[in-house]
Each structure stands twice: as structure tokens, then as C-alpha cells.
Write a structure and sequence with these properties.
382 residues; alpha/beta; Spore Coat Polysaccharide Biosynthesis Protein SpsA, Chain A; 2 domains; eight-stranded mixed β-sheet; 13 helices; 8 strands; 48% helix; globular
Length: 382
């Protein structure tokens, strides 16, 4: 009885802390737009792409169709694709009569110590720097992002308020059962790790970004030593945010209009996405892995175990489980998902725990960071 009561009490205490003292992460909503500036700076978008023919046409078309009052162009860095990615991108530019604003650059061979994405970004940024009039702002965006028409305008307005970096967590695809089951929780867990309000607070050291859509000042990139300063990072968006925030304010928000085109039709697809980066998030530390598994077990699984224990402490387990479901509801509402998923958060968390352990296993087997036929055996010193 004492054991169950203590276990449930700890879990309930964790959830009360999370709801009241974790930057209101669970209530994060789309932020109001920033006022538009008098001057619109020159922007170049850099898009790294490796075998992205399926999505690159829509992504490039949405970029070139931006309602942006200033000068804007796109550099697509073809990371040695074999599926015609570059040709599809060029065709998309011609379809919107913007071929003169698209530059297609083929990346050189990947150097040792670099992740593929960061090397491609570095190649694209170097190309932008070589121009007669280098951009003031650089948009770093993935090859599977469909930008809504005013996305760039809104991000540039945000930067004009005095920021060095502004990023959007785009709307992820939530169509298959696996996506509806696991993807809203991915956003929820990210917000729990990196409360957006703390990221936006220049007095708080918390830093984070969402790599699919990051607008950054060129001078801020130069100040941190360029993309090369984070060249070995698998979780490159948050590494970039940390480096930039040391010298200036940053911003991260949610978007329900700009969205990812990448599909995760089965649980295994999402599992691989999580397993690719989870152990890197733990700095490849076995001790942090054990601590994380224990912490997530206490937070998400213990309330269910106590609720079904059949003893007098069950009400405490039900209370913790109810608070957990309550915290998850705003995220489900934001992404127009059924509230019936909320009580299933412990089961969802169990999948993420298992994928995190599998991430460590893959790293130990030399298969860490697998993506597009490449692996990246990172380390804390990478």
C-alpha cells in the first residue's frame, strides 16, 4: 500500500509540476502575427534535398510562389540524388514562371565529420555568400515542406522585431492511423522538452528550433562560425538555436498552415524517425538513457499501473492519469484530432520509450542516424 501510494504521489507531483511550472508548454497555441516592417530584407532560401523527387516540386513551387515584397530567391542543393530531384525542381520553377529565381547546385562529396543535411546547407549558404549582393536573411527549409503563401512574409516580420532567428514547427501529416496515434504526441513531447515560451524569453537559456523552417540572420550565422560550427549534429535545428541564442534572441512558434508533406503510413515509419535522433538527444549517454526510461516510466506508465493495482491508492493513479490526459487535450484540439486519443497517452509514451531504447541499440551497432542510405555514428564530441 505504501509503495503504490508513493509511486502515484510522485507521478501526480510530476504532472502538477509540468502543468504549472514548465512554461505552460501544454497550452502552446499559434502566436499572433508580428507587425510588418517598413523595409523587407533580401532573403535566400536554401533547400537541401537527397532523393526528394516525390515532394520537391510542391515544396519549391510553394517557395517561389511566396507573397513576399522583398527580393527572394531559392538555392536547391541536390545532395547527389539518383531520382531526378533536380529536374523535378527545375520543372516546378518553370511552372510558376520563376526559373530565374531558382539555382540548382549539386553538393560535393560529403566530408568526414559532417551530416549530409548540414553539408548541403553549408554548400548552399556558401553559394549565397558568393553573390554580388548577399542576403540579409537565410531561410533553411526542408525539401518536403509546403509553405503557405505568406509564410516568408510573416517570418521576416518576426525577425524585424529584433530577433536573430525565427522558426516554425510546421503542421505534420496526420492522416494514417499511425500518424494520428503518434504524431501529435511527438509535438507534445517536443514542447515538454523545449517549452516555446522559454525559448522566446531572451533571459532563459532554453533554446530550440524546428529544422523544417528556420529563418536566420546571415550575420548571426557568421557570428557562430557558420553551419560548420554544428557540422556533426544530428539534431541540428536545436544545436543551431543554442549557438545563435548565446548572442541574440530567438523565436519558435507553431504553424497550422505551413505543413510537412512527408508521410508516415505505418508505425514502423514513425519508429525509425524517433530512433534516428533519440539517443543523440541523450548525448549518447547510457546513464541518461536509463534516467530517461525511468523518468518516462514514472511520468506516463506508473499512473496506469497504480490505477489498475486494485488497492486504495488507485484513486491517486487515476488522478495522475486524468491530469496527463487533460494536458494532452490542447495539442489534440490544435491538430483537430479526437479527444479520445488523450487517455491513450501512456500507451503512446510506451512506444516512444521503446523507440528511444532502440535508438541506443542502433547506435551501439554502428547504425546511428540512418537517413537516405547514410549512417552517422555521432558522439558527444562530434
Amino acid at each position: 500500500m505504501i509503495y503504490w501510494t508513493a509511486l502515484a504521489g510522485i507521478s501526480l507531483g510530476i504532472w502538477i509540476y509540468l502543468l504549472l511550472l514548465r512554461g505552460n508548454f501544454w497550452r502552446e497555441m499559434v502566436q499572433p502575427r508580428a507587425p510588418e516592417p517598413e523595409h523587407w530584407p533580401r532573403i535566400v532560401a536554401v533547400v537541401p534535398a537527397r532523393n526528394e523527387a516525390e515532394h520537391i516540386g510542391e515544396a519549391v513551387g510553394s517557395l517561389l510562389g511566396q507573397d513576399y515584397p522583398g527580393e527572394f530567391s531559392v538555392i536547391l542543393v541536390d545532395d547527389q540524388s539518383s531520382d531526378g530531384t533536380a529536374e523535378v525542381a527545375r520543372a516546378a520553377a518553370l511552372d510558376v514562371d520563376a526559373g530565374n529565381r531558382l539555382t540548382v547546385l549539386r553538393a560535393r562529396d560529403l566530408p568526414q565529420g559532417w551530416t549530409g543535411k548540414l553539408w548541403a546547407l553549408s554548400e548552399g549558404i556558401a553559394e549565397a555568400e558568393r553573390r554580388d549582393l548577399p542576403p540579409a536573411l537565410i531561410l533553411l527549409t526542408d525539401a518536403d515542406i509546403l509553405h503557405h503563401r505568406t509564410n516568408l512574409r510573416e517570418l521576416a516580420a518576426r525577425i524585424a522585431t529584433g530577433l536573430d532567428l525565427a522558426s516554425l514547427m510546421v503542421r505534420l501529416r496526420m492522416e494514417s492511423i499511425a500518424e494520428r496515434f503518434l504524431v501529435p504526441a511527438f509535438v507534445f513531447f517536443f514542447e515538454m522538452l523545449y517549452p516555446f515560451a522559454r525559448i522566446r524569453d531572451p533571459r532563459n537559456r532554453t533554446a530550440g528550433a524546428a529544422g523544417g523552417c528556420v529563418l536566420v540572420r546571415r550575420e548571426a550565422l557568421r557570428r557562430i562560425g557558420g553551419i560548420g560550427a554544428i557540422r556533426g549534429e544530428i539534431i541540428d535545428d536545436c544545436a543551431l538555436a543554442r549557438a545563435v541564442k548565446r548572442g541574440g534572441p530567438i523565436w519558435l512558434g507553431l504553424s497550422t498552415e505551413t505543413r510537412s508533406l512527408r508521410a508516415y503510413p505505418a508505425l514502423d515509419d514513425i519508429w525509425r524517425m524517433v530512433a534516428r535522433t533519440a539517443y543523440a538527444q541523450l548525448r549518447y549517454s547510457p546513464l541518461l538513457l536509463v534516467a530517461t526510461v525511468l523518468g518516462m516510466t514514472l511520468t506516463f506508465l506508473a499512473p496506469v499501473a497504480v490505477a489498475f493495482s486494485g488497492n486504495a491508492a488507485a484513486w491517486l493513479g487515476v488522478s495522475a492519469w486524468s491530469v496527463m490526459a487533460l494536458a494532452y487535450l490542447p495539442t489534440l484540439r490544435l491538430y483537430e484530432q479526437s479527444p479520445a486519443w488523450a487517455p491513450l497517452l501512456p500507451l503512446i509514451a510506451l512506444v516512444y520509450i521503446a523507440a528511444t531504447v532502440d535508438s541506443a541499440r542502433r547506435h551501439w551497432l554502428g547504425r546511428g542516424g540512418e537517413w537516405k542510405g547514410r549512417t552517422h555514428a555521432g558522439s558527444p564530441a562530434a
